[in-house]
Amino acid sequence: MGRLTQKTALVTGSSRGIGRAVARRLAEEGALVAVHYATGEDAARETVESIESDGGRAFAVRAELGVPGDAHELFLGVEQGLKERTGEAALDIVVNNAGVTTPAGVQPEDVTPEDFDRLFAVNAKAPFFVVQRALPLLRDGGRIINISSGLTRFASPDQVAYAMTKGAIEQLSLHLARHLAPRGITVNSVAPGVTNNGSDLFDIPEAVAQMAQLSAFKRVGEANDVADVVTFLASDEARWVTGAFIDATGGTLLG
Ligand code: NDP
Predict the structure, then answer these.
(1) 8-248, what's its fold?
(2) Please, what is the end-to-end C-alpha distance for the chain in angstroms?
(3) What is the mean pLDDT of the chain?
(4) Residue environment code for 22-44, b if the CB has 16+ CB neighbours within 10 A, otherwise e
């Protein structure tokens, strides 16, 4: 029996990349997973199908985050999907994973107010309101896991605005951990380093070799390296961990 049997989970941005790996791992452990996406309908369907072909349970939910009414739209789909499958709209695990980055090479001098607002809307504001909207559905003993980045502790000037959004999501974990502890709900941040999300960049051997040097293990992270950490935090074994920043950078922050 899996560690998450009878549990329900929402993973934002789980059509591909790290989110997909998280959705697959949570489902492997027995959770019913809401696979959220914005534009990648086929990719979300593939995620659901791969979970089902392994004997797990999942359903896809579409909602664009970072726009007015985003959390409301997301939860209309989540609630409907949960009710159809379990008879109630109760959640145990929320993973705020969906995120956008600054295009590589954009210097701080060139970040526009529009770019800045968009980054904060998707990476910081949306997770706050996703959590706020999730709270009435979240069972006592639940889990909130916010995907941050090693860039909150590793200077990379062309990612300053993005890193600021991740600093914000770490604050969400810290303060809500205190707020939700009376209900036994834990709230933690997981910070990946460079992680193969299946994008074209990871098909370029020279680029991968260069990025690999950042990790103490001299390789880039795989999505499952991060998904395993998230799955641990989602499990009962992590009941005593809350408000934590979990470094999942493969030793990148060791310097
Ligand atoms: P990907 O770019 O591979 O996937 C992003 C996911 O988020 C997709 O499912 C996408 O859905 C969804 N998404 C993006 N924008 C929106 C939006 N506006 N509304 C709703 N959904 C959206 O991401 P990664 O796997 O690389 O990253 C996952 C998380 O990990 C992010 O928070 C990222 O900041 C963080 N991270 C990643 C690192 C890495 O090296 N990969 C390093 C450190 C942190 P769709 O395709 O349907 O639009």
Answers:
(1) Rossmann fold (3.40.50)
(2) 40
(3) 98
(4) bbbbbbbbbbbbbbbbbebeebb
Which numbered atom of ligand 1 lies nearest the CA of 37?
47
Whole-number Å distance between alpha carbons of 71 and 65: 7
Q: Which residues contact 213 (CB under 8 A, 6 or more apart)?
A: none
pLDDT digits (tens, 9 = 90+) for 111-137: 999 999 999 999 999 999 999 999 999
Test site for ligand 1: of 14, 16, 47, most ligand atoms within 8 A of the Cβ: 16
**pLDDT single digits (tens) 133-180:** 999 999 999 999 999 999 999 999 999 999 999 999 999 999 999 999
Give 113's contacts (C-beta < 8 A, 6+ positions apart): none
Q: How high is the pLDDT of residue 103?
A: 85
Which of 18, 24, 226 has most ligand 1 atoms within 8 Å of CB, for mutation?
18
Q: Phi and psi at residue 92, in whole multiples of 5°?
A: -110, -30
Q: Does ligand 1 lie within 6 Å of residue 99's CB atom? A: yes
pLDDT per residue as tens digits for the range 11-40 = 999 999 999 999 999 999 999 999 999 999
Predicted-complex ipTM score: 0.99
C-alpha 233/C-alpha 187 separation (Å) is: 9
| pTM recorded for the entire structure | 0.98
CA–CA separation, 2 and 139 (whole Å): 19
**């790996």: which residue's tokens?**
21
Summarize the confidence of residues 205-223 as an average pLDDT. 98
